[in-house]
Write a structure and sequence with these properties.
The radius of gyration is 16 Å and the shape is globular. It is built from 6 helices and 9 strands. Helices cover 34% and strands 26% of the residues. A 7-stranded mixed beta sheet has the order 3-2-1-4-5-6-7, with helices on one face. Strands 8-9 form a two-stranded antiparallel ribbon. Helix 1 (13-23) crosses helix 6 (161-184). By secondary structure, it is of the alpha/beta class. The structure holds glycinamide ribonucleotide. Glycinamide ribonucleotide is lined by residues 8, 10-15, 85-86, 106-108, 119, 169, 172.
């Protein structure tokens, strides 16, 4: 069984979509641990409710990023795939290299547009008519790794960050479990910048 380690910073609805897919029998994987970089966040509660080991590795308690990451790595021992689900920190090149090809992120825009921490705001400010979300392998850049799956949504004139993010989130909850399923089934082949999806 593929073992997942999920890293979150807050609400944890993407985490919940993965928990739900596993519970529905759609995703043949198990979440070994949920780690957060902040205390008292919903993601910890969601994991606890599902009976999943959950640990806060509070970033504020570490003066050096290397020590923070060493603690994350310690808690990820034995995990096959690391899932960033609303994890709002940049991981070091050393961490990323360690999990090369086994580290996924979801970002709320159609990459390479609107990288960074304010994707919805930036998409609205730019005036795009279509936005969406992207699941990608993480490389040493920010939101720049090979793309696994994307889903698009319409952007309306009266959209706010809240309404747009809610519409995109619905798609996130579909494509993140799907991308993980493809990984679990050994159907993702990274070729340079591209991810080929092999026939099932
Ligand atoms: C999601 O919209 C995810 O795409 C985004 O944070 C949100 C987490 O929601 N991630 C990023 O912006 C990463 N740069 P959640 O805590 O409810 O899963």
């Amino acid at each position: 069984m593929t073992k997942l380690g999920v890293l979150c910073s807050g609400r944890g609805t993407d985490l919940q979509s993965i928990i739900d897919a596993i519970q529905r029998g759609e995703l043949n994987a198990e979440i070994s641990v949920v780690l957060t970089d902040k205390p008292n966040v919903m993601a910890l509660e969601r994991a606890a409710r599902a009976g999943i080991k959950n640990i806060c590795v509070d970033r504020k308690k570490f003066s050096e990023r290397a020590d923070f990451e060493a603690e994350l790595l310690k808690n990820l021992a034995g995990v096959d795939l690391v899932i960033l689900a609303g994890f709002m920190r940049i991981l070091s090149p050393e961490f990323v290299r360690r999990y090369a090809g086994r580290l996924m992120n979801i970002h709320p825009s159609l990459l390479p547009s609107f990288k960074g921490a304010h994707a919805h705001r930036d998409a609205l400010a730019y005036g795009v008519k279509i936005s969406g979300c992207t699941v990608h392998f993480v490389d040493e850049g920010t939101d720049s790794g090979p793309i696994i799956l994307q889903a698009a949504v319409e952007v309306f004139d009266d959209d706010t960050e809240e309404t747009l993010s809610a519409r995109i989130l619905e798609k996130e909850h579909v494509i993140y479990p799907q991308a993980i399923k493809l990984f679990v089934e050994g159907r993702l082949k990274i070729e340079g910048r591209k991810v080929k999806i092999l026939e099932g």
